[in-house]
Prior knowledge:
The complex is a heterodimer of chains A (308) and B (320).
Chain A: H1 9-33, H2 38-42, H3 45-53, E1 71-74, H4 80-90, H5 130-144, E2 150-155, H6 162-173, E3 179-185, E4 188-189, E5 192-193, H7 194-197, H8 204-210, E6 214-219, H9 223-234, E7 241-246, H10 254-257, H11 271-283
Parallel strand pairs in A: 1-2, 2-3, 3-7, 6-7
Antiparallel strand pairs in A: 4-5
Chain B: E1 11-14, H1 15-29, E2 33-37, H2 41-44, H3 47-52, E3 57-59, H4 64-76, E4 80-86, H5 87-93, H6 95-103, E5 109-114, H7 132-137, E6 143-145, H8 150-161, E7 167-170, E8 175-177, E9 192-195, E10 200-204, H9 208-221, E11 226-230, E12 233-235, H10 239-249, E13 252-259, H11 264-275, E14 280-285, H12 295-301, H13 306-317
Parallel strand pairs in B: 2-3, 2-4, 4-5, 5-7, 6-7, 10-11, 10-13, 13-14
Antiparallel strand pairs in B: 1-8, 6-12, 9-11
Helix pairs in contact in B: 1-8, 4-6, 9-13, 10-11
Amino acid sequence: MIKNNQSDQENIEQLQKITKKLSRQIIEITTRAGSGHPSSSLSAIEIMVALYLGGIMNYRPDEPGWPDRDRFILSKGHAAPGLYAVLAEAGYFDPEMLLTLREIGSPLEGHPNMRVLPGVEASTGSLGQGLSIGLGHALAARVDGRDFQVYVMIGDGETNQGQVWEAAMTAAKYRVSNLTAILDYNKFQQTGSVNHVMPTLEPLVEKWMAFGWHTTEINGHVFDDIFSAIRNAQATDNRPHIIIAHTLKGHGLSPFEKDDVNRKHGKPLTEEEKAQALEELEAYSYDQKITSFEQRPNPNIEPPERRQ
Amino acid sequence: MDIGKKIGLTYGPPTRNAFGNALKEVGAQNQNLVVVDGDVGNSTRTQYFRDEFPDRFFNVGIAESNLIGTASGLWASGKDVLAASFACFLLCNAYDQIRMSIAFPQANIKLMGSHSGISIGEDGPSQMAIEDIALATALPNFTVIVPADAPSTKAATHAMFDREGPVYLRTGRPKVPVLYDENLDFNIGEAIQVRDGSDISIIACGLMVAIALEAAHTLSEEGIDARVIDMHTVKPLDTDAIVKAATDTGAIVTAEEHVLEGGLGAGVAHVVARHKPVPMGFVGIDNTYAESGKPEELLAKYGLMPEDIVQKVRGTLKKK
């Protein structure tokens, strides 16, 4: 449940500051590691910050297995640097450890490993699996009569996976209203734009509605939007929820934006690009709405041209 | 089927039925147990549990990937979980999910695959799991159990819930001969010697244990004294029993209702090569898919009948 007054302007300004700090960490630790997925982490950062640090989720860093905790599953496991930055800020481990990302022996593996890092709820990195796992948690709450929320972040490209739709169908069958998926709609996957790789992903909102989900569409970089979507979801009974969050892969920072193919998917910034990105991040103002919301492809898309 | 009748074996229920009944018993003892079904509960016999405990039973539809993911989430929130489907769909369709959501996190989830092997008969090769043991044993930290009859399946079902970590239990569709009485001493990882012998050891699992017993009877008429070992746990293998068999009898033939690659025979050969090299022979499905037919016709055509074991024993003994 949402605590306190998250839409309170002071709180939001504080979260924006934290987001900038964690975004900087994401860029720094991936460049330092020489690999990783900074742009995929940056598209999802406000959402994870809102959930963990904005008072939405109940959890106890000193008791990671607390049975009544709310769960967050990063199904798009390649955004691990973002999750790690948030977990460190939330108190699960010393932020100094972020510097060991992807090093041998470090619990901060390339993709999240629940066995080695407390706070990680599922081992992910093979796409498509997190929503089913979230469904299992949500059903466990029902069987045990517990009142916790389950949040699952999925990627847009990830919904190419059939298992996502298996889980979508089943979650609606069981009417698990304590399950909220958040789709990081950053419009790019590994080899190109979502619209190029899978033009039939749209109409996306209509698909989820047809599967029986309570569906909200937001700007995933705007805290007010995120909080009102979560509040809206929790006020709606009897159905699972999905928040389709329009985001920018790389948060609109120019070193990522320059890459028209996939926004530097799976590539860290060079030292030079890093300096540029950090400078832009510093100057970035939340008053300017950065979103690709308006770029949403026409939901009434014509059938794509036949491909060779 | 007539296998084992000439040596006086009587037929009991299919191993899947024994599993289903035992699962219901476990469910009565353990209120924390939940069962996830891929819409084949009437075939896998998880419906016996569903009928008793509907609130702890989830049918996620014909969606094995989702079956495993849901099971993993239930486990991660503290439930004891059994997930079941046909062995081929469970292992083959959901292999990556089993790998990522069960094996990798070492989840305490029990899997049951029914309709294993070619003895399912008429439904044909799309429904026949002949690679599942290889797939399951390849997974780090997995335990793989292939019981031979109804009483040992009941015991195995109870035993696997007492064991921490992932377990794959493999059962079959047809009625099979009964080898044990109800209070057998069954321990995961401890093979059962069902017949002593000094000339050769036949190490088998599942339905092939009964077939091996009939083969041993035929061999005894030729003056060949064969030991028969029920290696119900294919992972971890009972290394001591294998080394003892190699030492005592000097030759080993394995028999399994599975392809020759990556199954019981390959595992036993690994142990034999490391600890006590002796001549070996292998009875199994040889690099092919089967077809529709009556179970016994298929077992004959694909080389899994008692006479196939007898022949393999004769050939192996020549290498001694």
